[in-house]
TrEMBL record, chain A:
GO biological process: proteolysis involved in protein catabolic process
Main localization (coarse): cytoplasm
InterPro entries associated with the record: Ntn_hydrolases_N, Pept_T1A_subB, Proteasome_bsu_CS, Proteasome_sua/b, Proteasome_suB-type
Subcellular location: Cytoplasm; Nucleus
Coiled-coil stretches: none
Alphabetized UniProt keyword annotations: Cytoplasm, Hydrolase, Nucleus, Protease, Proteasome, Threonine protease
Family the UniProt entry places it in: Belongs to the peptidase T1B family.
Residue intervals passing through the bilayer: none
Descriptive protein name: Proteasome subunit beta
Provenance organism: Olea europaea subsp. europaea
Record's keyword annotation contains Lipoprotein: no
Subunit structure and binding partners: Component of the proteasome complex. Component of the 20S core complex of the 26S proteasome. The 26S proteasome is composed of a core protease (CP), known as the 20S proteasome, capped at one or both ends by the 19S regulatory particle (RP/PA700). The 20S proteasome core is composed of 28 subunits that are arranged in four stacked rings, resulting in a barrel-shaped structure. The two end rings are each formed by seven alpha subunits, and the two central rings are each formed by seven beta subunits. The catalytic chamber with the active sites is on the inside of the barrel.
Chain's role: The proteasome is a multicatalytic proteinase complex which is characterized by its ability to cleave peptides with Arg, Phe, Tyr, Leu, and Glu adjacent to the leaving group at neutral or slightly basic pH. The proteasome has an ATP-dependent proteolytic activity.
Active site: T40 (nucleophile)
From TrEMBL, chain B:
GO CC aspect terms: cytoplasm; nucleus; proteasome core complex
Pfam families: Proteasome
Protein name stated in the entry: Proteasome subunit beta
Assembly behavior: Component of the proteasome complex.
One Gene Ontology biological process: proteolysis involved in protein catabolic process
Top-rank taxon, per record: Eukaryota
Family: Belongs to the peptidase T1B family.
Known function: Component of the proteasome, a multicatalytic proteinase complex which is characterized by its ability to cleave peptides with Arg, Phe, Tyr, Leu, and Glu adjacent to the leaving group at neutral or slightly basic pH. The proteasome has an ATP-dependent proteolytic activity. Non-catalytic component of the proteasome, a multicatalytic proteinase complex which is characterized by its ability to cleave peptides with Arg, Phe, Tyr, Leu, and Glu adjacent to the leaving group at neutral or slightly basic pH. The proteasome has an ATP-dependent proteolytic activity.
InterPro entries listed in its UniProt record: Ntn_hydrolases_N, Proteasome_bsu_CS, Proteasome_sua/b, Proteasome_suB-type
Record keywords, A-Z: Cytoplasm, Nucleus, Proteasome
Compartments where found: Cytoplasm; Nucleus
Residue spans crossing the bilayer: none
Predominant place of localization: cytoplasm
Amino acid sequence: MIREAMEMPPKGGFSFDLCKRNDMLVKKGLKEPSFLKTGTTIVGLIFKDGVILGADTRATEGPIVADKNCEKIHYMAPNIYCCGAGTAADTEAVTDMVSSQLKLHRYHTGRESRVVTALSLLKSHLFSYQGYVSAALVLGGVDVTGPHLHTIYPHGSTDTLPFATMGSGSLAAMAVFESKYREGLTRDEGVKLVSEAICSGIFNDLGSGSNVDICVITQGEKEYLRNHMLPNPRTYISEKGYSFSKKTEVLRTKITPLREMVEVIEGGDAMEE
Amino acid sequence: MTKQQANWSPYDNNGGTCVAIAGTDYCVIAADTRMSSGYNILTRDYSKIIQLVDTSVLASSGFQADVRALQKVLAAKHLQYQYQHNKQMSCPAMAQLLSNTLYYKRFFPYYAFNVLGGLDREGKGCVFTYDAVGSYERVGYSSQGSGSTLITPFLDNQLKSPGPLLLPARDAVTPLSESEAIDLVKTCFASATERDIYTGDKLEILILNASGTRVEYMELRKD
């Protein structure tokens, strides 16, 4: 029975082999390792000349901030960028993987990548993993067919939208977009609106915070504005500073000599087995 | 046959952090003013601190509905004490009362993480730290709430309370001056706010000394 399973080639998709073992371990009392989630606010909108993507920069592990300034806007192609929410490892891995696939495709076809190509590659990968790859993405870019903006959900469904938000702060950001979005925004108006939406997520959602990252993509040009806004400086730094002793403090010392003298006996009896 | 689980919990955690530091002739009690539920902020301006007596101040994080109920019970009990004994309760007496009140509800606890700070009958600073069911101890400093795991190691390093580190346990008020202690508290909260999502918005500091009670506020990060 075991030999048969080993000879079969892997079919692809999620392998559920270890799930039974994991369940048994949890029942015995093992604490499952937690995931680093980005607990995020990510947005995108289409303006007059292209697409603007925005993201906050906080990565959380439960209630603790693991990274105060992480990068959530990932490079896919020179004309395509992707914001990621959900499990940090999943968003990184899936965007890196599709970015490599797009590059190979560009070599193969000799053409600029299209946003719908990235979309198809991402959605088919996520669907085959049935939602276990916990990546919620906002994909945006400008190609020969024009500007495009899509949202991709962990189970593999997609939407094509003029403005989009994802992550735990998506409701806060969408409230801003629904109030103030209109078609044909200029670049500066678009950047201002995206910043407002991300700030809304940063201040009203506890899973989002720190700074605002922006990426503006237009025909033939892209601007990656890392830390475009820093609305959260540290509020108090003590003037006198704090010192920490370099050594571990010795509270007590006790030396016990083990033996006064050791005798070496030559040609003694061999040890009994 | 798996055990039946409740599909509704009577408790919620509104987050927040409390700290108290005892000095030779003062006591500093501080808490942030953010009240949250899940990933949402309910309000940025909610005080977790209540002054029960001139010399006793209670700061509690956890489930604020239970905290509010606990505060009312203590205030009522203190009023009765005043009628019966014709004097105000001392801080150690209030500490014992709080412990008894918490243990009274041992089998449906107040979801409150308390720090009681004040001045004892000699005018020295005292801090009492509690768990949810009333176990308490007099200490030189304490932190409770969501940011306590971030703040306590720092206070251990700076204040080196002999309490848990050396035996026998000794009376452990810090030799720091009042302004140094306030500076320390502000640093603690600014740092905890950076890394704990439930701590932030504003810091409320109460300083008790021989001349009375003083309040100070400081802005914290709002994200």
